[in-house]
């Protein structure tokens, strides 16, 4: 089953120039998809970490979901630096925002980030080099290190405290870089998952036989903060329910292949 964004959705604006996504180096070009809602507090730092890449993306798609803070004005400051601002009315969920980004992106590779996470400066180069070296590679992930924002002293209720500061395998969208064919084969993110949609996609990608590689290095620093809804107690429960659903779907898929 494939999960595609609606072709008829009205977007109020798509601000930014039409940047050329033809590869300008020996490495493949990369489109970065950043979905956000009311992320003004951390958006500029996150965007700057993407713009500081030593293999610069050909475009950054900021997909906004009716933010009521300064998100749009912050994104507008970067429009001359390969940033496109897409405003959704009505708002989309996380999965649908990523799927819209996939639909609009023009790079050879697709990468994903959030408004509050930080990339190390060589993230895209490290991952793009693996695609250049391995034509069969469909997607690449890396390690991630969660950290506490200076505004809090304890992690959110839905986050395991022992993972703070640890180097964790990054089965998250924020570490993912993929060829477009990966989504053509496995489908887009499942919009029926309010939480754990990236876990579901990785399970589906494995079942369809996509070739993957994990870089054994921290390339993403994941910020934990008090305003994060992802790791609230309620969202943590949704994630647990989602994981059980992923396990059930995976078993059902594999039975059909026997």
Describe the structure.
This protein has seven helices and ten strands. The protein has one domain (11-257): Spore Coat Polysaccharide Biosynthesis Protein SpsA, Chain A, CATH 3.90.550.10. It is globular and about 55 Å long. β3, α2 (71-76) and β4 form a beta-alpha-beta unit. With 258 residues, it is an alpha/beta fold. α6 (197-207) runs parallel beside α7 (233-257). Strands 1, 2, 3, 4, 5, 6, 7, 8, 9 and 10 form a ten-stranded mixed beta sheet that branches. The two termini are 18 Å apart. The model is unreliable at 1-10 (pLDDT under 50). The protein is 32% helix and 23% strand.
Q: Short description, anyone?
A:
The chain is of the alpha/beta class and 258 residues long. It has helices at 40-51, 71-76, 94-104, 123-133, 180-186, 197-207, 233-257; strands at 11-15, 30-36, 59-64, 83-88, 109-114, 118-119, 139-148, 168-169, 177-179, 212-224. Helix content is 32%, strand content 23%.
């Amino acid at each position: 089953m494939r999960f595609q964004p609606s072709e008829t959705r009205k977007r109020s604006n798509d601000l930014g120039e039409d940047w050329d996504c033809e590869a300008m180096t020996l490495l493949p070009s990369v489109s970065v998809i950043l979905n956000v809602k009311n992320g003004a507090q951390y958006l500029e730092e996150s965007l700057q970490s993407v713009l500081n890449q030593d293999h610069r993306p050909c475009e950054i798609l900021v997909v906004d979901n009716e933010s009521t803070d300064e998100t749009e004005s912050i994104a507008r400051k970067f429009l001359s630096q390969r940033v496109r601002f897409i405003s959704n009315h009505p708002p989309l969920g996380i999965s649908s925002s990523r799927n819209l980004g996939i639909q609009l992106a023009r790079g050879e590779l697709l990468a994903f980030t959030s408004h509050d996470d930080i990339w190390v400066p060589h993230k895209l180069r490290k991952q793009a080099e693996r695609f250049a070296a391995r034509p069969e590679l469909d997607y690449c992930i890396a390690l991630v290190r969660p950290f506490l924002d200076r505004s809090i002293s304890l992690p959110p209720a839905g986050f395991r405290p022992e993972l703070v500061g640890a180097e964790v395998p990054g089965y998250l969208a924020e570490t993912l870089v993929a060829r477009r064919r990966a989504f053509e084969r496995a489908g887009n993110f499942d919009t029926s998952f309010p939480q754990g949609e990236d876990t579901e996609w990785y399970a589906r990608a494995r079942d369809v036989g996509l070739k993957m590689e994990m870089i054994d290095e921290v390339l993403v620093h994941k910020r934990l903060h008090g305003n994060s809804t992802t790791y609230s107690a309620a969202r943590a429960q949704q994630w647990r329910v989602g994981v059980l659903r992923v396990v059930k779907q995976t078993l059902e898929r594999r039975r059909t292949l026997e």
